[in-house]
Design goal:
The protein has 3 helices and 3 strands; from the N terminus they run αββααβ. The protein is an alpha+beta fold.
């Protein structure tokens, strides 16, 4: 929430996080960023997924330009946003001895 507020001037409301399983509801989105994670007790991925309108609004605010389509260059923004979020979360969680690293 802090990253979206600081980097994108968006006051987002968190939903409930969940572990994706074979029985999870199918998610629909137009763009996603994914990072592999590893620690001493687990490995997996974390993803940040957006529908087109939400992603474009975030990028418009983050970059100070008006975008109407997801271009190849703009796609990098999803990965960069996840890297910022992951970097902050990793620092906080590792201070609590979770030993999380990028895979």
């Amino acid at each position: 929430m802090q990253t979206l507020k600081v980097q994108c001037s968006i006051d987002a409301k968190p939903g409930k996080p969940f572990f994706k399983t074979k029985d999870s509801p199918k998610l629909t989105y137009e763009i996603a960023a994914i990072i592999g994670l590893t620690s001493s007790s687990f490995s997996g991925t974390i993803s940040l997924c957006f529908n087109k309108d939400v992603f474009l609004e975030i990028m418009n605010n983050m970059l100070g330009e008006k975008f109407t389509e997801i271009t190849d260059e703009l796609q990098d923004g999803a990965g960069e946003l996840l890297n910022i979020i992951f970097g902050h979360a990793k620092r906080v969680l590792n201070e609590q001895k979770y030993d999380i690293q990028k895979a």
